[in-house]
Amino acid sequence: MGLIEKTLSSIGPLDERAAASAQERLDSLTKPLGSLGCCEDLVRRYAAIRHDPTARLGRRAITVFVADHGIAAEGVSAYPKSVTLEMLRNIAGGGAAISVIARASGYHLAVTDVGVETDTSADPIPGVRYRRIGAGTANFLRGPAMSIAQVRAAIEAGIEAALTEAADGATLIGLGEMGIGNTTAAAAVLANLTEVEAARLVGRGTGLDDRGLQRKLEVVEAGLRLHRAARGDAIATLAALGGFEIAAMTGACLGAAAERIPVVVDGFIATAGAIAAERLRPGLHQHLFFGHRSAERGHAAVLEAIGARPILDLDIRLGEGVGAALAMKLIEAALLLFHEMATFASAGVSGRSR
Fold this sequence. Notes:
Number of domains: 2
Number of helices: 15
Order of helices and strands: HHHEHHEEHEHHHHHEHEHHH
CATH class of the largest domain: Alpha Beta
Distance between the termini: 57 Å
Helix content: 40-55%
Mean pLDDT: 97
Structural class: alpha/beta
CATH superfamily of the largest domain: Nicotinate-nucleotide-dimethylbenzimidazole phosphoribosyltransferase (CobT), large domain
Radius of gyration: 20 Å
Shape: globular
Strand content: 5-15%
Largest sheet: 6 strands, parallel
């Protein structure tokens, strides 16, 4: 049994007893019943995923996967492919948005090169983990973006990243990514795995003008026609149209669920990885929090299609895990209220009248 199959078999149902126990405490706190709204749902779901009625919060981590895309050669991004390597250095060096938020929040930031075109592993960038599957994916208009073996290796890299965080005591993991061209790959993957049409999924990414947006849509639609045999199959779709970092995020969702660790999914691209994980293990979405609704056009359509309610809606479209990290702060706040608010009994406050 391979790592992927072992991980899939290890994912169990949520602990509804833990959720019910957490609800009992929520109802005992000095507030009207249900008055903390969605914050109470965050606590219940956290307890159920963790199988922990006390909803203890441990180490928090953000894991960012970085890779290049062959489809960038088709002019689908406003930035050159060289930016992927430059941003890998920037994230690891502490200068990116996610670096700032993680540092200020006390989150462990793990940055993994799963396939940047330029290989820097011989002279490693400080703070970068190397789990390279290749020097970027192939152009999916010329053939599959990856081989099946590469998809499996990328998923395994994501599983291993989650297992590493679990071994280090993480109880909450945020997902992020970086890679020029990856909104194109994500749109294609999502179109193949959901009922949402490409025209609703393709957005401006890093800031395309109208002409660039039309070109991007044409590229995605051509890719979908070329790889229509992969439709609905997660592994085949990732191989045909995906990216190393998208597949790695698929693996991270699976690995974290197997370890009973909630995952906070970032935006549009991370959602593509999460949807692929859901196709591999139906029901996996119950183990995930969707951190925010991205300003990238297709994200709202996908969230609606899968019935997911994002925690935040801030018009963010940066990637890197920024939206996930901000949502993690709200989850922390909800858990802080759960643990530190007084109960009616402890505070001597009268409860509801019968």
